[in-house]
């Protein structure tokens, strides 16, 4: 049976993605900061994971052990900032980087050796991280954290430990999605990026790229 770890399945895009993989017969390991998720399935196992806490990541590592995986989706993330006007609030920046960058790097390091040959890793980034765009000032900490996450994706795609096992790595821009983070006016439903993530994982993708839907986009 195919197996996947998805961080942050308690709500939003992560929940819809977990449900999509479950509906397609996958075994899903999911996380939330509390350890519980508001839905159940006989092929879903949930874990407590706070990406801002080294202790929580270590506890997850002990519990997860050598469980083998076909895929990892780094979905859990925070933002948008309260710092919508200059200057950048360094407290907010540190918090966003702690979860979206350090925590994501640490959990990937913990589980990458569990991923089978030809496996996949997708990290959820954002249009707001794109360097090749014009935009008006706002949410700088979130933008900076997701741009750093994209560079992590590029580094990971060159990591010999993953290259040797033919593990593909990409960043994914889900668009503007109706969730607690995206708010009620977003045009996309969480089920839409969830299906795109399923298609990328099952049909494959080019390693070291930034995807919007199932197409490569500019960084
Ligand atoms: N919604 C959008 O329009 C949009 C656009 C571009 C990118 N994204 C990205 O898509 C991903 C999912 O976003 P979403 O809109 O679904 O957000 P959401 O509804 O706010 O859900 C966030 C998820 O991340 C988990 N999480 C939050 N802080 C965490 C921490 N410190 N450690 C571990 N898990 C944590 C939450 O768990 P708890 O329930 O336990 O707090 C929850 O499951 C994020 O990476 C986000 O940046 C979203």
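^ Assign residues to that structure.
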């Amino acid at each position: 049976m195919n197996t996947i770890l998805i961080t942050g399945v308690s709500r939003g895009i992560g929940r819809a993605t977990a449900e999509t993989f479950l509906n397609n017969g996958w075994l899903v390991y999911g996380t939330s900061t509390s350890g519980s998720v508001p839905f159940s399935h006989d092929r879903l196992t949930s874990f407590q994971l706070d990406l801002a806490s080294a202790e929580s990541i270590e506890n997850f590592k002990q519990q997860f052990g050598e469980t083998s995986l076909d895929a990892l989706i780094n979905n859990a993330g925070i933002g948008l900032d309260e710092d919508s006007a200059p200057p950048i609030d360094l407290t907010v920046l540190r918090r966003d980087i702690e979860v979206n960058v350090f925590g994501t790097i640490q959990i990937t390091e913990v589980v990458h050796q569990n991923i089978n040959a030809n496996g996949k890793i997708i990290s959820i980034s954002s249009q707001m991280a794109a360097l090749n765009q014009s935009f008006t000032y706002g949410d700088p900490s979130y933008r900076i954290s997701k741009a750093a996450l994209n560079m992590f994706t590029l580094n990971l795609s060159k990591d010999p430990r993953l290259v040797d096992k033919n593990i593909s790595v990409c960043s994914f821009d889900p668009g503007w999605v109706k969730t607690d983070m995206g708010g009620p006016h977003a045009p996309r439903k969480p089920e839409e990026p969830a299906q795109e993530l399923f298609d990328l994982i099952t049909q494959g993708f080019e390693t070291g790229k930034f995807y919007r839907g199932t197409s490569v986009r500019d960084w």
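The two ends are 34 Å apart (CA to CA).
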